[in-house]
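Fig. S4 source data, part A: sequence.
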Amino acid sequence: MWREMKTRELAATAAVLLALAVPAAAQDDGMPQGKRPTVSRDAPPSSNATVNLINLLVKQGTLSEEQAAVLVKQADDEAYVARQATRDAAAKAEGAEKKATSAADATSPPGTKRVTYVPEIVKKQLREEIRAEVMDRAHKENWASPGKYPEWAQRIRFYGDIRARYEGDYFPAGNAPLTNFSAINTGSPFQEESNAPPNPYFPPSYNVSQDRNRFRFRARLGADIDLFDGFTAGLRIATGENSSPVSTNQTFGGNGGNFSKYALWLDRAFVKYQPVQDVVASVGRFDNPFWSPTDLVWYKDLGFDGFAVQAKHEIDEGFTPFFVGGAFPVFNTDLNAGLNIADLQRNNVVPVKLPSRDKWLFGAQTGFAARFDAETNLTMAVAYYDFTNVRGRLSSSCLVYLASDTCDTDLLRPSFAQKGNTYMRLRNIPDVPIPVQTFDYQYYGLASDFRPVVASAQLDLTQFNPIHVILDAEYIWNTAFDRAAVASVAVNNLGSTTDGSASVYNGGNQGWLARMAVGNKEIKHLWDWNAHVGYKYLESDAMVDAFVDSDFGLGGTNLKGYFIGGNVGLGENIWGSVRWMSANNIAGLPYKVDIVQLDLNARF
């Protein structure tokens, strides 16, 4: 009988002792769920002593309002868990008490007195078991922190940026018309033989004489997703007036004007695998995998399609060699690519499918990063790139009667280009006046192969930390360039003569850039700042012009000149920028442009 009395009294007392063991904040159910005391410098006194203490720390400047709000939320969550534990413990104790009472009443004689006694070890064990059970349930059902994202969503990190820009383009007198070969190659072919008096057809050309003011913006939104076992994925969408690989700018009033909506493009889509800390493999469309301190060779926002591997390893303290290699399809031939061959005897055309003209970029880079001391860092690298099938070739004899007719090397024309590279005619069109006259509808391809070697270096001096002094240098040399071969087929980049003799090709295959920057390395906070100045020299056929900077000289190669600019922080992750660029043609017809850009940037 004594054992049965103890059992029932033990159950009856458990709930009381467990309730006393729960923090007082957990027993306070007077505050409506989801509402918390206001935390700020001007908040009125609260009935909660902890909140009053936090408010006092905020007023004294020890805590910010954001930090205080986080502390109050944490206390709220813990109190919420404790309240649940109290309720569950009370319910279990009540059930145990009822069972024990029923059993004792069935065996005890009337008038039996019971004394409650719960050993301390039992109390402790009950508290730990119930708390563990409640916390496990809170974790699985996600009610320990109401409003928290589910586990799968916590593996996604969103990021983005917005930029508003004013750009002024100023052309001095004396510029000569520059043929827009990209407009020809992506549209109708140009009828060359009519480019003479009395009825000349002028090829499309760039604006090189009328100043222009543009207000532009750029918006990008991306997500990095942590998958499993070293796998990650990424997506990013961006604005842009077209599918240009080197610009995501959208001009206000473009796309038809009248407040028309603007297009979004898939800018990044990739999967990465990192089996160990120092090795990363990427496939899809991703950021430039090659280390490039300037935009002499690759535009800073250019995305690469294909496959790349990056590896690095610190072999000695402060000395880390690295390697990058990859293969990237630049152009893939349409499965239905073909042409129509005229059969003059039967007076009809014969459809013929063309062989593949796929274009690829293969690249490899090796270098090292060295930290000589806490204030001096040097990074150097050498890269080799091989562009295949990018040079144009003269077609076999091709009869062209209509602008829609095709020849067997038409696919070698660039599908995207800026300006600066030297071009050649692609079509070998004989003059056949009978029975139907042929016409010289012409497309153009690059006159040179491209296998550039690029040397890059950056010296970062932090003696005045957080102020950095950064010196960047880059040099490019197109090893596949054959001056005689290019000169024999060139249709542009020809120097003018004063004696009436034929113009001579005066392009080149080298380039270099030097830049110095002073200030904060990154602009993140209010009044962070930096400034830079530099000089750029990039000859016509040093690099494929489609992938270089789209701002300097309004994009492309065959340009030289200086640039200067700076940035200043206007708040957390908000900054303003100004840049001035002055560019001149190196070869060919005279061309000069000065550009000013004023930017307001924000990232999140």
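Fig. S4 source data, part B ends here. The chain has seven helices and 25 strands.
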